[in-house]
């Protein structure tokens, strides 16, 4: 079952010409850092999907697209999906299989890989946002779903990460037409799931959506995203953010700012040792274009944040269409990046494995 939006989606559009990418070695689809994987068996692909790994299988599903190729500014309708796919990561030359459906069409939530399955948190459909939290597992090639404690509020486009055995969530929006994002912060202790989500100190800054998050040791890191405010017509307008924050020992600490904005970068962010990697993201440099169709694609730059040095650097750049609004899933020493949006409205079926570098450039 698919679900069609009754309204047009606001495209990610832009204000100036695309800035030059940082001078860094391109990462080809089969470079040591980036390895192409079989594309999902859908000609269009999905943005805002869920993805994770269980029993050595990559499981992915949900999200939204414009299946007939008509963009929203030309009257196209955004469709939410419930299709669910799996890829056997342990078998050479494996192919994707469509294994069933999610409980309902949904996307733009958060997915995290746990030892006992993939947790699917919140999200949105064509009309509303969800409080639902579900544990997805795979047995004999078929999906199974177990309900976990609901979120305190409906939430989509938030950021989160697993820190030890505790899930952290921060930011997001509570309804499709929101003109502000939340700064709220919650945790779920996986060793005491029945206690439900606990309220934590909120981010001491503007509420935000489409940030990226990571766990580095015992620290929850939140970076980038955008805040919302109503414009003159009462519509949500974005402010692109470069802030980064750390939550540890019960308090927030401001970190070094990102060198550029990063909205809807792959999340949770890939991590290696004490570094997190911000892969692509909308940098806001193309807002205000005469037409969304003139968009040249999102930045291919990969940023590295070193927690020990509290410093950002450029780790390289992708030599493939850079996706935003996409999930990651850990696998061996790398992270699978699943589908996403490569231009406003334009999805990709590409899937690739990103292996973070061990040393600084």
Structure commentary:
With 361 residues, the chain is mainly beta. It has one domain (13-341): Kelch-type beta propeller (Neuraminidase). Helices cover 0% and strands 41% of the residues. A five-stranded mixed beta sheet has the order 3-29-28-26-25, with no helix packed on it. Strands 4-34-31-30 form a four-stranded antiparallel beta sheet, with no helix packed on it. Strands 5-6-9-10 form a four-stranded antiparallel beta sheet, with no helix packed on it. A hairpin with a 2-residue loop joins strand 32 and strand 33. The N and C termini lie far apart (46 Å).
Quickly list its features.
361 residues; mainly beta; Neuraminidase; five-stranded mixed β-sheet; 41% strand
């Amino acid at each position: 079952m698919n679900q069609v939006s009754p309204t047009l989606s606001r495209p990610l559009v832009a204000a100036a010409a695309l800035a030059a990418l940082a001078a860094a070695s391109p990462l080809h689809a089969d470079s040591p850092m980036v390895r192409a994987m079989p594309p999902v068996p859908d000609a269009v692909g999905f943005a805002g999907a869920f993805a994770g790994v269980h029993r050595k299988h990559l499981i992915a599903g949900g999200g939204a697209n414009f299946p007939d190729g008509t963009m929203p500014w030309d009257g196209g309708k955004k469709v939410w999906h419930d299709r669910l796919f799996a890829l056997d990561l342990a078998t050479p030359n494996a192919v994707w299989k469509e294994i069933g459906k999610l409980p309902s069409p949904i996307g733009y939530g958060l997915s995290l890989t746990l030892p006992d399955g993939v947790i699917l948190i919140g999200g949105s459909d064509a009309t509303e946002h969800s409080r639902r939290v579900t544990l997805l597992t795979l047995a004999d090639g078929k999906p199974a779903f177990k309900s976990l404690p609901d979120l305190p509020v409906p939430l989509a486009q938030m950021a989160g990460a697993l820190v030890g055995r505790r899930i952290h969530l921060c930011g997001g929006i509570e309804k499709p037409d929101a003109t502000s994002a939340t700064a709220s912060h919650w945790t779920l202790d996986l060793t005491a799931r029945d206690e439900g989500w606990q309220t934590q100190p909120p981010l001491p800054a503007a509420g935000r959506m489409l940030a990226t998050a990571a766990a580095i040791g015992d620290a929850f890191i939140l970076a980038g995203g955008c805040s919302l405010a109503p414009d003159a017509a009462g519509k949500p307008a974005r402010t692109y953010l470069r802030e980064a924050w750390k939550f540890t020992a019960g308090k927030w600490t401001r970190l070094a700012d990102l060198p550029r904005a990063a909205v809807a970068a792959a999340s949770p962010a890939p991590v290696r040792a004490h570094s997190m990697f911000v892969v692509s993201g909308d940098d806001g440099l193309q807002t205000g274009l005469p037409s969304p169709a003139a968009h040249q694609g999102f930045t291919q730059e990969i940023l590295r944040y070193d927690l020990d040095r509290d410093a950002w650097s450029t780790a390289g750049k992708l030599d493939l269409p850079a996706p935003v609004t996409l999930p990651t899933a850990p696998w061996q020493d790398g992270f699978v990046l699943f589908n996403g949006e490569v231009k406003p409205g334009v999805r990709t079926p590409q899937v690739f494995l990103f292996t973070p570098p061990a040393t600084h450039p």
